[in-house]
Amino acid sequence: MNIVLIGGQDVPGIGGVEAYMFNMARALCLQGHNVTIICSSREPKTTVVDGVRILYKVCPRSNMIALPLLFFKSIGYILKNKKEIDVINFQSIYFAFLPGWIAMLSGSKVCYTIHSLAEDNPKHGRLMKLILRFFAFISIWCCGKKIITVSKSKAQEIKLRYAKSCTVMPCGVNMPRCADTENFNILERFNLSPGHYYLTIGRID
Length: 205
Hints:
By secondary structure, this protein is α/β, with parallel strands linked by helices. The chain contains six helices and eight strands, in the order E-H-E-E-E-H-E-H-E-H-E-H-E-H. The mean pLDDT is about 85.
C-alpha cells in the first residue's frame, strides 16, 4: 500500500511524535509498503531515510500554527496523488478533520492518531483548557471511528471523557546496538550495583 503520515517537525528528529512516526514508517517499509512522511520544517526539501520518503513543508515552530498549516499544505499533495494514495494518517485530531474530509472525498482512507490531549497541558490556563476541550470534542466526533491512540491508558481516558473508542498502536523504542559492550557498562558508568537501583520508564502527556 501507499501510506502517507502527516505531522511532526523535522522527522526523524528529537521528539515523541517524530520518533513514533519514523519508527512506524520504517516498520511498514520493511513489510513492503511505500511510506511518505509530510512534516513541518524551516526549509522545504525532500529526502529518503531508511526507505522512507520525507517531505518537509515550511511552517512556523509554534505547534498551534504549524500543525493546522501543515495539514492544509498537505492537501495539495493529497489531491495531486489521490490515485496512488491508499491510507492517510494525520498525527493529531486538532485541525485535521477538514483536511481529512477532503482526503476522504478524494478517495483515500483516513485515520487520526491522538498522542496526547492538549487540554491536559499544565501550561494552559482554565479558559484555554475549556476552549481546547471544546475543540477536542468537536474534532473527535468529526473524525469518526478511525482514531488511533498510543496507549491503553490514553484510550481509556478518551473513552471516559469523550465516549469514543480508539484503536491502540503503542509507542515503541528501538534499543541501541552496541558493538563494544565492555565500554557500555551502564551500571559502572553511573556507579550502580546490581539489585540496588530503580528503573522507571514513562511518558509525559
